User: Fold this.
Amino acid sequence: APLPSHRPIQALPDQLISQIAAGEVVERPSAVVKELLENALDAGATAITVRLEEGGVKRIAITDNGRGIAPEQLPLALARHATSKIASLTDLENVATLGFRGEALASIAAVAAVSVTSRTADAPHAWELVGSHLGTVAPSSGAHGTTIDVQDLYFNTPARRKFLKSEQTEYGHCAEVVRRIALARPDVSFSLTHNGRTIDHWNVSEMAKRSAHILGSEFAEARLPIDETAGPLRLHGFAGLPTASKARADGQFFYVNGRYVRDKLLVHAVRAAYQDVLHGDRFPSYVLGLDLDPALVDVNVHPSKIEVRFRDGRAVHQFVFHAVQRALSQTSATAYGSVP
Ligand code: ADP
Ligand code: MG
Assistant:
């Protein structure tokens, strides 16, 4: 058979490079929602609104009250590999922000119509940048903070557009991302609307309401607080009692340094702690956060993957296992009346 191509090696046009890079980061509308929410949190926002239209495909507009972007920096926000979050390899090894690659906004702008409106604390008014880092920055109206408005996702990449599922499915993924983040950040208010309808609205510190809504009322009523520290590791949050367990693993929320993860090692450690109190076909519900020195965990695995790598996985596993097991054993003792 002939070789697939007789073409010489050629550098790809910039536009195509951006679209290929975008594919890594912007797999579907919910990936845009995740990136924009992480940026809002990194900017110190305490109030975030998410407006979706048609499952996020038509529009994703996220407004925050964070520190904003100065007008002369707006083009850089949309430029590839430009970030305010790290400047060196040392910074990368100690990264404490959710973002650090400086490619999300550029990737989104490569496959959608984007506008960024922002006003810093000391600015008399907002400024807006439309299109890409090559667009012009013009005065605009708006409160302190930032709005990123993303419209017509994949309008210029029809092959990708074809892979989108139904509006309801894409919407569901977007809502899931908002809820994951809202569960981890009771210090921030969130509101979510879809096609003009308010779906979720949570004020600051409404954790019981958030967890009841997201994990069900059983969890809200039957959850054990955990807060344990051992050396550089701290585990905090809530482990659901067996009565709050589920037939599916959809009530499991684990965060590492505030970042939602689905990590085999952590899932296994928690599951093992439930060994004696839960039937094999049930899944525990929990909202747990592991905090540790950023130098002890590598979050630089893949832009859209929710995986991390621990420097000492064994120690993390043992710590999480014992902390959850201790919490569970204390209450079963209380429940049977053996502890006053
Ligand atoms: P990263 O988050 O990895 O730095 P992004 O492409 O997501 O890369 O964002 C680029 C830069 O734009 C950020 O480093 C930040 O300085 C700025 N930025 C993006 N979104 C916001 C926001 N909502 N508020 C303030 N600054 C923002
Ligand atoms: Mg980012």
